[in-house]
């Protein structure tokens, strides 16, 4: 039996054969759902991304902000799920924007079919991201190293779909006291981040300078630029950043932390936001 799912649901179920100690047993397993979402602007198709169904309006709002298509919630007149009768699914979102939402449509139309593992694939050049005029995030955010080490467990505890499937990424906002503000999950790292930022956009939270973001996967270049677009001062990951991500974080004076696991982490940029100051120890 192949995976069975209902359109718009986040989890599929399938039959599997499990091998353990030389014995094969048949059972059921949960799989994270993955479906295409087409994003339209004023009725015209812009891109398709593979995502986990759910929070599609937030995903669209976050994508519009982090890609520089809008500057704030005020430039989004409305977001509407467009029903496709032939598929009996809502896999299209149309964004109606105000006339002052100016953007380079040709530059954004990248002949997308964006893979779930790569949000930046298809961009003709990263120069388009650098030219957007993003500013350095607020410099007064501080969080202690002890609190920072506690938040991965809090993210993990707040990921219900991951607990069932083990197959998707999480992104979460925390305040300086380590309290969980909001979390989103998706099969794609960049989609989880867009959903989380889109939640803030939809709730008219325009200043994310008082929060940090934790992502469950690798901190690549696009994740850093999306966090910067939202004004987030500290981005942490349980895994590694890319070289270009580190370069961008240092250039934009963002704090970037990787390998946040247990009582250990690596600071790649912006050590000054960790309070009290992290003690320097010479490496032999």
Can you walk through the features of this model?
Helix 6 (189-202) runs parallel beside helix 7. The chain is of the alpha/beta class and 284 residues long. The protein folds into two domains: 35-130, Ubiquitin-like (UB roll), CATH 3.10.20; 145-273, 3-Layer(aba) Sandwich (Cytidine Deaminase, domain 2). A hairpin with a 4-residue loop joins strand 5 (76-84) and strand 6. 25% of the residues lie in helices and 31% in strands. The chain has a six-stranded mixed sheet. A four-stranded mixed sheet has the order 4-3-6-5, covered by helices on one side. Strands 1-2 form a two-stranded antiparallel sheet. The model is unreliable at 1-8 and 111-126 (pLDDT under 50). It contains eight helices and twelve strands.
Number of strands: 12
Percent helix, as a range, is 10-25%
Question: What is the CATH class of the largest domain?
Answer: Alpha Beta
- Unreliable runs: 1-8, 111-126
Give the C-alpha Rg.
20 Å
- The H-and-E topology, N to C, reads as EEEEHEEHHHHEEHEHEHEE
Instruction: Output the structural class.
Output: alpha/beta
* Number of structurally distinct domains: 2
Distance separating the two termini:
58 Å
Q: Specify the CATH homologous superfamily of the largest domain.
A: Cytidine Deaminase, domain 2
CATH architecture of the largest domain: 3-Layer(aba) Sandwich
- The whole-number mean of residue pLDDT values reads 82
* CATH fold topology of the largest domain: Cytidine Deaminase, domain 2
Shape: flat
């Amino acid at each position: 039996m192949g995976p069975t799912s209902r359109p718009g649901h986040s989890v599929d179920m399938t039959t599997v054969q499990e091998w353990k100690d030389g014995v094969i047993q048949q059972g059921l397993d949960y799989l994270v759902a993955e479906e295409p979402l087409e994003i339209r602007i004023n009725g015209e198709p812009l891109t398709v991304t593979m995502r986990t169904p759910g929070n599609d309006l937030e995903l669209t709002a976050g994508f519009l902000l982090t890609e520089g298509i809008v500057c704030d919630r005020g430039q989004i007149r409305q977001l509407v799920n467009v029903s496709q009768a032939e598929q009996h699914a809502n896999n299209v979102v149309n964004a109606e924007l105000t006339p002052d939402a100016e953007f380079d449509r040709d530059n954004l139309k990248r002949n997308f079919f964006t893979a779930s593992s790569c949000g930046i694939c298809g961009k003709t050049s990263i120069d388009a991201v650098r030219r957007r005029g993003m500013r350095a995030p607020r410099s007064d955010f501080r969080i202690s190293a002890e609190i920072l080490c506690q938040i991965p467990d809090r993210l993990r505890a707040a990921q219900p779909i991951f607990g069932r499937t083990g197959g998707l990424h999480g992104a979460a906002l925390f305040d300086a006291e380590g309290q969980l503000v909001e979390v989103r999950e998706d099969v794609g790292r960049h989609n989880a981040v867009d959903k989380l930022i889109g939640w803030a956009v939809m709730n008219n939270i325009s200043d994310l300078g008082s929060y940090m973001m934790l992502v469950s996967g690798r901190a690549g270049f696009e994740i850093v630029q999306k966090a910067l677009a939202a004004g987030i001062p500290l981005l942490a990951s349980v895994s590694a950043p890319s070289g270009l991500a580190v370069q961008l974080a240092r250039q934009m004076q963002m704090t970037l932390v990787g390998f946040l696991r247990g009582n250990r982490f690596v600071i790649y940029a912006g050590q000054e936001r960790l309070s009290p100051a992290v003690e320097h120890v010479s490496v032999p």
